[in-house]
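User: Predict structure, ligand adenosine-5'-triphosphate.
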Amino acid sequence: MPIIVFASPKGGAGKSTSAVVLASELALRGAEVVIIDADPNRPVSSWAGRPGCPPTLTVLSDVAESSIIDEIEAAAARVPFVIVDLEGTASMTVAYAISRADLVIVPTQGSQLDAAEAVKAIRLIRQQERAFGRRIPYAVLLTRTSSAIRPRTLQHIRDEMARNEVPVLDTQMHEREAFRAIFSFGGALQGLGASQVSGVESAIRNAQAMTAEVVSLLKRTSEKMEALT
Ligand SMILES: Nc1ncnc2c1ncn2[C@@H]1O[C@H](COP(=O)(O)OP(=O)(O)OP(=O)(O)O)[C@@H](O)[C@H]1O
Ligand SMILES: [Mg+2]
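Assistant: Predicted complex:
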């Protein structure tokens, strides 16, 4: 426990990148982390196959629709953090993973078209809540945003989400070369040399802020859940 699921039917929304960044940060703090790579393209497994994967982080692949719930539950019984990376489509595997989540993170780029895809993910979360008779906390994570400018479209999307009571993390995953580079070189951001990639320090600060916000959100939601039961 807890189980954090990255979901969005939009391909390229930033699910795998954000999942790996969060998992690495947690692992570098000493936590045992399992990432369940439930995407048949196995992007997280390829990353973990390169050098530098933190020693307390394990990646499980070969996850099928029929086995995903068992895999998630078995991992959650063993380690304090289970992170699930899903493929960018709607499938039974996605629905099953969401049904087990303590927190679903919906990564979304800052355009209206991307936000519309995030809404589909949120609808699926709400359907799973009804189907399984349990609350499933979730939050949108804005990805690939500019660290320098705040475009009006992004503010408009935030306003619309606030009006519809869709929770959005304060921290955004900015567009940074370092977040791409970990998939080329392997390992965590901290292993990237400043001569290899620019802006590593800013990317690390961004990753740490995102991780801190996710951890505090998990704490708040688990307190709320306990109060409800
Ligand atoms: N914060 C970021 N900064 C820079 N590049 C990013 C960032 N997030 C994602 N990318 C890049 O965007 C592309 C898509 O990201 P990613 O693979 O994480 O998305 P995804 O939602 O997992 O996609 P899929 O649905 O295909 O699994 C990749 O090329 C990745 O390197
Ligand atoms: Mg992916």
